[in-house]
Amino acid sequence: MFVIPAVDIKNGKCVQLVQGKPGTEQVVIENPEKVAEKWEKEGASLLHVINLDGAFGDAGTNLDVVGSILETVSIPVQLGGGIRTKEDCAKLLNMGVNKVILGTMAIEHPEYVEELSSEFGSERIMVALDSKDSKVVFKGWTEKTKKTAPEFGKLFEEKGAGGILFTNVDVEGLMEGFKVEPLLELLEAVNIPVVYSGGVTSNEDVEKLSKTGAYGVVIGSALYRGKISFKNALKYEKQ
Ligand code: AMZ
Question: What is the count of structural domains for the chain?
Answer without folding.
Answer: 1
